[in-house]
């Protein structure tokens, strides 16, 4: 059985390591395929915008006892009322049918009467609402404006916090990566985009940014120490940071996805389409994609952006010449310091008796005439005169 606590500890200490940086081409290839599929879904198949964006009439038939063939019944009722165009119908909860059609305010009463007859309910059980396309256009503009402002502020804050624009660029690319793939999944599977979905898109950007900043903060700590001690290369220090935060990222993602998955299950099986389902679906997809980008995209991209910097190249050359170190060592050719007064004669005698040379790195034996104690003994305090 796998001991996950031990695995996490080994990843943090460096005893066990996954090479995320050297395999960056693999991660880039996977992301490229996902982005291409997402763009095909967005620009070829198109997005399925909800009625809030395109406008139209919505009818809700409550108390339906028999939902078999509800799509055909809804289509027939709307056509009988003289409303043309596409008709979409879904089941909400256990006994409510939602019917959406083209906007036809003058045919609303006829549509309610026809739907009540087709589904065998009273006309009072059929509610109607009209949504104009201008409201959806206003929501879209506000969402796009909020997205642009969010990305600009994120870039500035990250550049100031990490004191390098390359970290800000890497984080911004990871955010756009998450957004494009999430929207592309919506397009490929035909999920409806509603204002709740837009809120979910903006929320997952915040989550992805939080996870990326945590990883970058550890990267900055490790790389600063690498420049100071010159024990490992920049890429090795960054890779260690990803390994050290890997278990935390996985745990955070799983903990966040479990309740969202429960909400999704309830939404699909019991509640049907609605605000709760739309929001949870966007969050589930976005959080999963955001965890991937924080681990596999952001840090490898940062290393690639800084690879040709003078300081990074000099550090790599120094480590290549001297080798990676695991602990501080004395300068080459200099003996390690020995504490004054240390008793090393016994060890020296044992080594000479055995006929072996002192082991490498062991302290030098003290000469027999060397004074073991301090040279100047402390003076006695003068006696006080009475």
Structure, explained:
By secondary structure, the chain is α+β, with helices and mostly antiparallel strands. It has 2 domains: 20-49 and 135-317, Multidrug efflux transporter AcrB transmembrane fold; 56-131, Alpha-Beta Plaits (2-Layer Sandwich), CATH 3.30.70.600. Helix content is 63%, strand content 7%. The chain is built from 12 helices and 6 strands. The protein has helices spanning 4-13, 24-45, 51-54, 70-80, 108-119, 133-162, 165-189, 195-229, 234-271, 275-306, 310-322, 345-354; strands at 48-49, 56-62, 88-92, 96-101, 126-131, 192-193. The strands form 2 sheets. It has a 4-stranded antiparallel sheet with strand order 3-4-2-5. α7 runs antiparallel to α10 (275-306), α8 (195-229) runs parallel beside α10 and α9 packs antiparallel against α10. The longest helix is centred in the middle third of the chain and has 38 residues, at 234-271. The N and C termini lie far apart (81 Å). Mean pLDDT is 78; it is low at 326-363 and 366-375.
Number of helices: 12
Tell me roughly what share of residues is in helical segments. 55-70%
As an assembly, this protein is single chain
Please give the alpha-carbon distance between the first and last residues.
Answer: 81 Å
**Total E-strand runs:** 6
CATH homologous superfamily grouping of the largest domain? Multidrug efflux transporter AcrB transmembrane domain
- Largest sheet, described in full? 4 strands, antiparallel
Cα-based radius of gyration, to the nearest Å: 34 Å
